[in-house]
Specification:
280 residues, alpha/beta, four-stranded mixed sheet, 4 strands, 56% helix
C-alpha cells in the first residue's frame, strides 16, 4: 500500500491510502462483497432520470459531501485482518509513506501519520454508539409502504462508516508502532508544493489537520500565522494527474471544498468579533 500525505492548507493535511493489490473475489470478506454490491446499486440509482431512487441519490450525495474528509481518509485504509497482519510483519506486503519534504520533514512524517490515525478515535467511537442507539428508534419507519426505511439505512451506513474509520486508524497505529513503513519523500510532490507556498512561509511544525488547529488556544497562539490554502481545485486536479491516481480526485476535491468553507467561516467569525464587543 501507499500512504500519501497531501497538505491542503498551511494547517491541514489529507491522508489517502492507495491499495496496490485488489483481492480476488474468493478472498473477499462478506463485508467487502456487501460494500461492492451497495456501490454498484448506488451507481445504478445515479443513472435514473427521475423517481424516488434519483431523489435519494441527490440528497444522499449532498450528505456524503459533508462527511468530514478526515473520515474518508481513514476509510481509505483497509481494516487489519489476520492475513494482512501476518503479511505485513513478514514483509510480504510493503507499505510506503509518500509526502512532500518541503512541508513535512522526514523525521516528522510518521508522527503526522500517527496523529491523523488517532486524533478522531474517540469521536468516531462515540458517534458509532449513537448510531446504534438510533437504529431501533428509526425501525418503525419500515411500516411506511413503497419507500425504504431511509433513516434506518442512513444510521446503518454511518455506523459502518465510523467503524471503518476506527479500523483504518488502528491499522495505521499498528504500522507506526511496528515500524513497518518505508519513508519515501516525493520530488514530484515537492515540485508541486514549492510553487504553492505563501511568500516567506516556514512551517514551525509539521502540517496536520489535528483538532487542535481549530481550538481557541491554537488560534491565539498562532496569532498572525493565519491559515491559508495551499491547494485549489485547479492545482488539486493537476496533483491527481501527476500522481496518476484517478480515484484520488474526488477525495482531493472534497477536502479542498471543506477546508475552504471552514477557513471562510472562521474569517467571518473573526470579522464579527469587534462588532460584538461594541463601544466601552
Amino acid at each position: 500500500m501507499r500512504f500519501f500525505l497531501l497538505p491542503i492548507s498551511t494547517r491541514r493535511t489529507l491522508l489517502y491510502c492507495q491499495k496496490l493489490q485488489v483481492l480476488p473475489t474468493e478472498k473477499q470478506t462478506l463485508l467487502d462483497k456487501a460494500t461492492i454490491r451497495a456501490a454498484k446499486l448506488w451507481a445504478n440509482w445515479e443513472k435514473k432520470e427521475k423517481g424516488w431512487q434519483k431523489k435519494v441519490v441527490v440528497y444522499g450525495n449532498y450528505l456524503l459531501r459533508r462527511i468530514p474528509y478526515e473520515e474518508w481518509s481513514l476509510k481509505s485504509v483497509p481494516p487489519l485482518s489476520t492475513r494482512r497482519r501476518e503479511e505485513e510483519i513478514l514483509g510480504k506486503d510493503k507499505n510506503y509513506l509518500i509526502f512532500p519534504e518541503t512541508l513535512i520533514p522526514t523525521t516528522k512524517a510518521v508522527n503526522v501519520l500517527q496523529t491523523l490515525g488517532t486524533e478522531r478515535e474517540s469521536l468516531h467511537r462515540t458517534r458509532m454508539i449513537w448510531c446504534f442507539v438510533g437504529m431501533p428508534i428509526s425501525a418503525p419507519f419500515a411500516l411506511v409502504p413503497v419507500i425504504p426505511n431511509l433513516p434506518f439505512f442512513y444510521l446503518v451506513y454511518r455506523a459502518w462508516s465510523h467503524w471503518r474509520a476506527l479500523a483504518g486508524g488502528k491499522h495505521i497505529q499498528f504500522l507506526c508502532q511496528r515500524n513497518l513503513l518505508s519513508l519515501a519523500p516525493s520530488p514530484v510532490l515537492d515540485s508541486i508544493y514549492s510553487r504553492l507556498l505563501p511568500p516567506d512561509f516556514t512551517p514551525k511544525e509539521p502540517i496536520t489537520n489535528t483538532e487542535k488547529a481549530n481550538s481557541p488556544a491554537s488560534k491565539s497562539s498562532k496569532g498572525a500565522e493565519e491559515e491559508t490554502m495551499l491547494l485549489s481545485q485547479k492545482n488539486g486536479r493537476e496533483l491527481v494527474k501527476v500522481l496518476e491516481i484517478p480515484e484520488l480526485e474526488v477525495e482531493v476535491e472534497r477536502a479542498i471544498w471543506q477546508v475552504e468553507t471552514a477557513i471562510q467561516k472562521e474569517r467571518e467569525e473573526k470579522a464579527k468579533q469587534p462588532d460584538k464587543a461594541g463601544p466601552k
